[in-house]
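BACKBONE STRUCTURE TOKENS:
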Amino acid sequence: MADITVVATNRRARHDYFVEDTFEAGIVLTGTEVKSLRRGRASLAEAHVSVKDGEAWLENAHIPEYGQGAWTNHAPRRKRKLLLHEEEILILAEGSREKGSTIVPLKLYFVRGRAKIQIGLAKGKRLYDKRQALREKEDAREAQRAISLRTKG
């Protein structure tokens, strides 16, 4: 099993979208961005992925400036190029053109020292889908609570 260190997850993504397909991509980063990520500081809450001219870009992801960085520090919300195979970029571009579809970042992590991001081709959920998912989650939680009370007492 590969040594995986998760830096950030986008928990709202699975609440707001039906994730249909996932891809793992490398990210082009500067030195201070890597150091900031190794400290476990990043946010994917408002981030999204766009495909332009056959290249995938991570936009609006927040990687804070490195504390000990000086003039070499990076802009926290700059566009970052994603490293994917050409076939994967074509699949993402075709999928994101469909109505209601988008590409969302799901998880940012390190695998054997290399920064990777898991992105997903997703369709937006309607309000009733979100309510139903919350209801199912609450029902499962209540059932688990009832089972644990039954086994304890």
About this structure: DSSP finds four helices and seven strands in the chain. Strands lie at 4-9, 17-27, 48-52, 55-59, 80-83, 101-111, 114-124.
